[in-house]
Structures are given as C-alpha cells and as structure tokens.
C-alpha cells in the first residue's frame, strides 16, 4: 500500500512540475514575440532568441534533432529553403537546425498560438487561401526583398501537411520566390515531426533533418516552374524512401 501511495505522489508531483514549467515556458514564448517585433533588433538578434526558445520547445516536447548535411548550407549565396511538410513542428525544427536567421512562408490559419506571436518577429509572410493574388504579391515583393537582403525564406510547396513518406504534389508557384530572387534552392527532407505530439510526453521523438546540396540559379534558369517543382520533389522523395541512419535514442 505504501508503495502504491508513493507512486501516486511521484506521478502527481511530475504532473504539477510539467504544468508549472509549461505554463511559465509558454508565457515566455507569447510575451517575447511581440516584444522583439521591433525594428531596433537585427535579424541575427531575433534569430538567436528564437533559436534558444525553440530549443526549449524541443526540450519540453522531448525532441532530438539529428541534422545531416549542414555543410550544404550556402555561406555566400542567397537561398530559399524548400522541404516536405509533415507537421507544424517543421517550423520549430528548421529554426533549430539552421545557425543563421531564417523566415517562413506560412498559412494565415497557422493554429499554434505561440508560433503566431513569433512569426512576425522572424520576418515571415502569411499566405491567405481566400486571397491568393495578394499572397503571391507579398511573396514576390516582401519575400524576394528578404532573400536578396540576406534573409533566407523557407517554403513548404505541398501547401498542406502530410503524415508520412508520401508527399502531396508540389505547387509550382511556390518556386517563384526563388526564381524571382535569382536565389539558390536548398532542398530539405524532414522525418518524423508528425510523431512529436503522438509520442509526447511518454516517448522521445528523434527527428532526422536532411539538408541537400543547393540547386544554383544557372542550373534551373531555363526550366519551367512545374519541371523545377518536380525535380526538387524527386530529390526530397528519394531521401524519404531511404532507410534512416542508425541513431541511438
């Protein structure tokens, strides 16, 4: 009986500790986003705080990120990151996987409150499904200016989330950001982010994040957007079809 009571007390204490940490943690996230959404902070300063905060998110949700190919990130080129989209957690692992600042093209109906607070801080652009023309204009003006100013943008061309290795067709219009900015395209392949919420809190999730070699503007300049979308999707799909490297959990 005493053993049972001890176990119950430990479980209750654990739940209270998680609730307290979680409450303070998410209050931090919601508060810091609007505070940093000011011109006096540089993209680098904002990214440092965003990266630190996303590491806390990964700690809270018991996520380990294994990054492959970080050496493929361009250091002297403007670039646009293009990847598959398994969950909204893709944004969090992308921030944590890149050393420098990065912004996102995201849906206006983004349903994670603390991320909505942080997105303007990071220079992100919201896409409205009911006004695609306005959204495309923003991407081709603000997005292109961001990229040309040295702030990489990340886009998920499927347009919606998938929950496994089978992707939705890439939307060709998503690649106009890179082509109009005359920027390199950096394909990424993301594994297992859709399992994060399924596993938490009892099981840790290992997310594998592959950064492929960049596709330079001169390599795609004569391609149609549809052909370019298919080529990039094929690169990402090929990695999804491979067995994962052995990683100790």
Automatic annotation (TrEMBL):
One of its GO terms (biological process) is phosphatidic acid biosynthetic process. Pathway: Lipid metabolism. GO terms for cellular component: membrane. Its EC number is 2.3.1.51. Coiled coil: none annotated. It catalyses: a 1-acyl-sn-glycero-3-phosphate + an acyl-CoA = a 1,2-diacyl-sn-glycero-3-phosphate + CoA. Residues 79-193 form the Phospholipid/glycerol acyltransferase domain. InterPro entries: AGP_acyltrans (IPR004552), Plipid/glycerol_acylTrfase (IPR002123). The chain crosses the membrane at residues 6-30. The keyword Membrane applies. Keywords: Acyltransferase, Lipid biosynthesis, Lipid metabolism, Membrane, Phospholipid biosynthesis, Phospholipid metabolism, Transferase, Transmembrane, Transmembrane helix. The keyword Transferase applies. GO terms for molecular function: 1-acylglycerol-3-phosphate O-acyltransferase activity. Belongs to the 1-acyl-sn-glycerol-3-phosphate acyltransferase family. The HXXXXD motif is essential for acyltransferase activity and may constitute the binding site for the phosphate moiety of the glycerol-3-phosphate. This is 1-acyl-sn-glycerol-3-phosphate acyltransferase.
């Amino acid at each position: 009986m005493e053993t049972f009571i001890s176990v119950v007390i430990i479980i209750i204490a654990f739940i209270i500790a998680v609730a307290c940490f979680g409450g303070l943690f998410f209050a931090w996230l919601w508060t810091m986003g609007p505070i940093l959404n000011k011109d006096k902070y540089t993209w680098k300063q904002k990214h440092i705080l965003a990266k630190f905060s996303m590491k806390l998110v990964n700690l809270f949700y018991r996520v380990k990120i294994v990054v492959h190919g970080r050496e493929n990130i361009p250091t002297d080129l403007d670039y646009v990151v293009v990847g598959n989209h398994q969950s909204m957690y893709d944004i969090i692992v992308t921030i944590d996987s890149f050393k420098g600042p990065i912004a996102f093209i995201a849906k206006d109906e983004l349903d994670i409150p603390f991320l909505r607070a942080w997105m303007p801080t990071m220079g992100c652009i919201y896409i409205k499904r009911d006004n695609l023309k306005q959204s495309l204009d923003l991407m081709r003006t603000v997005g292109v200016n961001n990229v040309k100013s040295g702030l990489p943008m990340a886009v998920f061309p499927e347009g919606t989330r998938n929950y496994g290795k089978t992707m939705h067709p890439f939307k060709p219009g998503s690649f106009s950001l890179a082509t109009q900015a005359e920027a390199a395209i950096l394909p990424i392949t993301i594994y297992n982010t859709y399992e994060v919420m399924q596993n938490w809190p009892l099981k840790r999730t290992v997310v594998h994040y592959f950064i492929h070699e960049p596709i330079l503007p001169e390599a795609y300049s004569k391609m149609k957007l549809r052909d370019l979308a298919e080529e990039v999707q094929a690169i990402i799909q090929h990695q999804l079809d491979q067995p994962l490297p052995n990683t100790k959990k």
